[in-house]
Records
---
Amino acid sequence: ASAGLFFCTTMPFTPVCNNMPATILIEPRWVIPMEPAAAVLEAHAVAVEGRHIAAVLPVNEAVKRYPDAER
């Protein structure tokens, strides 16, 4: 699990390498989404599929939904 802060944006990002797994779960201490304003989510994960954010959901739900994801 990752510790720190993860910022979500609407801009696509560039993968670090070509061998990027299909799904990655990022588990920061806090997730601060663009909407709703002033929201701070704790115990949430960001599921990234390819080059896009697929979901932001509670960690326990993310692990069940994406069991094969790299963490």
---
Amino acid sequence: VVALDCRGVRDMVTNKNGYIVNTLEEFIDKVEYLKEEKEVRKEMSKNNKIAAKKYYIENILNEMKKIYRMK
């Protein structure tokens, strides 16, 4: 993942699963780097699959249930 720095992105992208950039030049540099570094891409892909589990519908529903039970 190479993403521009904005709300939401900061919650999902870490240095283990991608890069947050501020400029077009940074974006291009990171994409070119990932294009050349197959092992880095593979590791980030693995980490993204793990991170995505947090957003599975079942997990979201369980978190919402916890919130509403507290009230």
---
Amino acid sequence: QHSDWDSESVLLIREGFIAKGMNQEQVKAAWGKPCRNCTGTKKGPWGEAWEYTTQVVFFGTDGKVIRWEAK
């Protein structure tokens, strides 16, 4: 469906995984939409953080995953 996504990312997304360097659209495809009214979902000059049920995903200023961690 997304011809610009590399095959490795597509396989990870299908299995419900994310990886460093994925963009926000890819994270949504793998894990769904983040909790928008949770305290862990925020923006700053450093980038963005999205809170999920058990994890927080951190994006750099380029909108790509730099890390994630358990809540």
---
Amino acid sequence: NVFYAKNKKNTATVKGTVTDDERTPLAGVSVQILNQNKGTVTAADGTFTINIPAQKPIALVFSYAGFVTIQ
């Protein structure tokens, strides 16, 4: 649930963990950059890492079967 960015030249790395309301990690959640074809999927422990453009504001979209998609 906590995300942080670490600058690297023209990109930043965002890392986080996706959990449900009971804080159970969710594996297989799609994490996409809004309006782009770039993304990743959460690991078995719910963690993900994605590189994003450091100079542009972006939104991440999280989708998972049986849950509401959020950004």
